[in-house]
Amino acid sequence: MNTTSINFKSFVEWDNSPFILFSNQGKIIYLNNASEILFGYVSKQELYDIALSYAPKFFGYKTTTLSLAYDSFLFYAITVGYENETEISLRLYNTPRLKPKHKLETKKLILTDINILLEANIALFRTKNTNPLKLLTDQDLPHLKIDQNNFSKLLRKAFNAFKSSDSMDVSLKFLIGKHVIIEEKKIAIVQLVIQANGRYNDADDEIQVLATQSQIKLILKENAIYLEIPLLV
Amino acid sequence: METFFTTSQKIQHIIKSFNLTKTLYVSSIIIGESHTGKKSLARYLFPNATIVSGDNKEELISALEHNDELIITDFEKINNHNILDFSNKRIIATASYMGNASIIDDIFAFIYMMPPLKERPEDVNYLKEYFIKEACNTLMIEPNTIDMSKLYLNLSKNSKSLKKSIFSYINKQTMDDKDIQEILYHYLLKQLKGNDGYKEYLGLYEKPLIEAGLAKFGSQLQLSQILGINRNTLRKKIHEHNIH
């Protein structure tokens, strides 16, 4: 098939996965739309360094499977390639969003004051830890429908990840401007953030499973855990 | 109505957390050594909840079917955890040990560790006074007639051994000649055998006699005079009974 007459630029431009072309000086020669958003969360230098580290030994293209996470952007592989000495390309492959296997049975959920669950979990955490904890919360948040047991397990594990931090900041607030679609309805989001100077990541997989079961979006960072909880009423 | 006393910071946090989740449908477990007050705490916090033991499978299954709020004691005795459906129920379980940590972690949202009595000195003091009062009432003894300065509190089995050591101490303090003779009589009736019984069992009397005498009078010389025996004989007896 003769493809030389086809201009592929717009296909790359509108690809959902980020594509960046660097010069041999590390300057950006070209980037597609998806990478523009990504650069809000990662520096040019970091991605250039990754491109150099995973570049093939000779001219050509090399795909490497690896896990990269920049805020909520997750990638499972990259392709680095060059055909001359002046340009090197990096393409990052978006990790597919898993559709939750288990459907949220909203009818079985109980309207809950999320502040009570949060405070109970803080009291539980306090039975084992004495590190200072600052809590900033919105007492006026409406009651929301949630699986109380499952959400409590999620909170326990999320808090445990900070068990030996010097001090912790916990905040619970209404996330303005963001929504999630559940059962074809637009649902507002409440965001819970736990952050400290460091955290354990050994239970990350379990936290992810529990969050997915409650259709909570989880963002794991080096020093923080973000939970975006749908405000089902 | 069940009451629960504690000054332990850890248990105060447990109570606070339970009070917050009192109206929620979550599953909680209190894990700790026997006789640390797990069941009392659960009954104090949930006075109207049905109580069932993990020991009795049929009863447990039926209780789970018919109740939304349930206290399950001896959770470690449940073999098959697949029979448990805790969804939208308020479950408070107690267990003497963790057992399979991953199962506990999987089933329960709130996992509390009850500290043993030796980590709760203020609670020990409170329980000591409580049990002394109870012992004096039961044994019909005036509390101020007993010297408590030599009371040794055994905490190896938490409140059970603590209570036993107090009852036993108070009981011993109030015995008279007749009681002691009676105790010795029953003991000897059971134990006496062999061919050197006289010498062997004389120690039952001799050892406490010399020990108490040395504690009271200090020197062997003075004690030999009090006892009216030769100093060398006393020395020999001290050596024989290995008294320091």
What do you see in this structure?
The complex is a heterodimer of chains A (233) and B (244). Chain A has helices at residues 9-13, 33-38, 44-53, 114-126, 148-160, 204-213; strands at 19-23, 28-31, 60-70, 73-82, 87-94, 110-112, 133-137, 144-146, 168-182, 185-196, 217-220, 224-230. By secondary structure, chain A is an alpha+beta fold. Chain A folds into two domains: 9-94, 2-Layer Sandwich (Beta-Lactamase); 106-230, Heat Shock Protein 90 (2-Layer Sandwich), CATH 3.30.565. In chain A, a hairpin with a 3-residue loop joins strand 11 and strand 12 (224-230). In chain A, helix 4 (114-126) packs across helix 5 (148-160). The N and C termini of chain A lie far apart (56 Å). Chain B is of the alpha/beta class and 244 residues long. Chain B has three domains: 9-115, 3-Layer(aba) Sandwich (Rossmann fold), CATH 3.40.50.300; 119-173; 177-240, Arc Repressor Mutant, subunit A, CATH 1.10.10.60. Helix content of chain B is 52%, strand content 10%. Chain B has helices spanning 9-21, 38-45, 57-66, 101-107, 121-139, 158-173, 177-191, 197-217, 220-227, 231-240, and strands at 27-31, 50-53, 69-73, 90-95, 110-113. A five-stranded parallel sheet of chain B has the order 2-3-4-1-5, with helices on both faces. In chain B, helix 3 links the parallel strand 2 (50-53) and strand 3. The two termini of chain B are 51 Å apart. The mean pLDDT of chain B is 89. Chain A binds chain B through residues 108, 110, 112, 116-117, 119-121, 123-124, 126-128, 148-150, 152-153, 156, and chain B through 10, 13-14, 16-17, 20-21, 23-27, 86-88, 108-113.
